[in-house]
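Let us practice reading a record.
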Amino acid sequence: MLDHLIFTPADIDLSRSPLAGKIDAETYVLGAFNPGMTRLANGNLLLMVRVAEALKTPTFDGQVHAIRWDDGAYRLDGWPLEMVDTKDPRKFLIPGGGWKVMALTSLSWLLPVELDADGRSVVAVHYDKAIAPRTSYQCYGVEDARISKVGDRYLMTTCSVSPERHSTTLYTSDDALDWDLQGIVLDHQNKDMLIFEGLVGGQYWAQTRPLGDLYFAYPPGSEWRSGPSINLSRSPDALHWKPHDKPGIRPHSATVSTARMGGGAPPILTDRGWLTLWHGVEPSGVVGIYRTYWSILDRDDPSVTIATEHAALLEAAPALTEPLKDSMYIDNVVFTTGIADAGDFYVVASGEADLACRITHIGKDVFAG
């Protein structure tokens, strides 16, 4: 089974970054990870890599700084160190106000990376097709692309980050290289919107994962655990979404390994139903332990789970990141974001340690009945 890192921060030429020459500060690649994936018309695979570009020296003059897009320019904003909590290297918290407020230590943009048909090697890096912030609701970055092909059209959801809102945005394309921004499709914090690769009952379907600070308890003895979970939505056009009345995949009370969960790769149709790869998070330390799991959903009613496996499909692989250990800032994280059919096996794309892109070949027999 192939299981390797295909793209790392060292593979990025920051002189070709959208920020190059537009900010008076030295930057570096904090991570090149969480790649959306699809198959191009030429048979190759395309990764849409999230590049987290961070300030090399974010703290100076008694302040910690963040990068912000502002009407075509990039600016530095500073907060006094005594006002913030910097325990998590990816962000800093700004206490006060009675709710959680944070800023990021990096700004993310998306880089198309073309691979060969099986994901074994990089064919081209399309810097000229990079996607960067272009509106005020993306001023802190564009994150975590997920790509689905429905009919002849490619649909890509992204997380757009700003003080205005933490929303989900949609891009569309005819070739998966030139993308048109369609705007906001979910106007609330939702990190994991995945559009099914095909229609169900003539409608588009998507997995979503809305977040909040309040969850109501399941009754004592329930098989489910309260907290972030995977919901479903339907749409006539992929732009206007209505939440589905029935719930999707819930955290199971028998394990803490999936105490928090969310979508991973866009669901694809198999002989058994919709195959969905999703992530579960076991509470541990600041970030938690992220693993990949799988379920099969009914082809006509995706709220019904046909099969699932409680053992993890993928876990973090320290041997893969050993050569990058000096660049690592978190561990125990694998975050699957794409899947493609390759005949007898699936090519699965993941972010490893919020640092690099991982490609894994998984035999189809793993998901057989």
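A brief commentary: The two ends are 21 Å apart (CA to CA).
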